[in-house]
Amino acid sequence: MRAPTGRGLVMAVLFLSVEAVGAPPADTTRAAPTPAPTPAPAKDAEAAPGDADLTPSPYTYEVRGRRDPFRSLLIRKQVERSGIGGLAGMTVDELELQGTIKMKTGWIGMMRGSDNRSYLLKKGSVLFDGEVTGISSTEVTFRQNVNDPASPKPFRDVVKSLALQQKP
């Protein structure tokens, strides 16, 4: 018999590799041993201290001060203001400038709140989401706290101006 060359050699190698891979195991006549049944523990007997429950516990997520990863960062968080009355419970957007008063100590702003009551503000007065940073004869400037991760500053300056009327 002559030795295969070229294409015949490749076919012979492929045939032998397929036969080796597809061949059944050499010892298939022997049956697999069946495991011996373990005795069931008595219902009255208590578990030994070394025995542990091998079932995995269900996974629980612990927040530990982290934010919810499924909540949008762009939506402003609404804080509950119930129970906070007066000026400390008002936001900058809820106030409307009614007038200003010149005193010896400086300017005072007269503001009307969302509850239709008037409030007197001076520089440094604290609101729910900001504080008064300046008062002039025609405007009141607020520094409003902003909870926006896209904003480079955690605050914004808001100016409320008087709507002056011209005399006819």
Summarize the structure.
It contains 1 helix and 6 strands; from the N terminus they run αββββββ.
Explain what you see.
The chain is mainly β and 168 residues long. It has a domain at 86-161: SH3 type barrels, CATH 2.30.30.830. Helices cover 10% and strands 22% of the residues. It is built from 1 helix and 6 strands; from the N terminus they run αββββββ. The protein has one helix at 7-22, and strands at 96-102, 107-112, 118-121, 130-135, 139-145, 155-161. It has a 3-stranded antiparallel β-sheet with strand order 1-2-3, with no helix packed on it. A 3-stranded antiparallel β-sheet has the order 4-5-6, with no helix packed on it. A hairpin with a 5-residue loop joins strand 2 (107-112) and strand 3. It is elongated, with a radius of gyration of 41 Å. The termini are far apart. The mean pLDDT is 77.
Topology:
Elements: H1 7-22, E1 96-102, E2 107-112, E3 118-121, E4 130-135, E5 139-145, E6 155-161
Antiparallel strand pairs: 1-2, 2-3, 4-5, 5-6
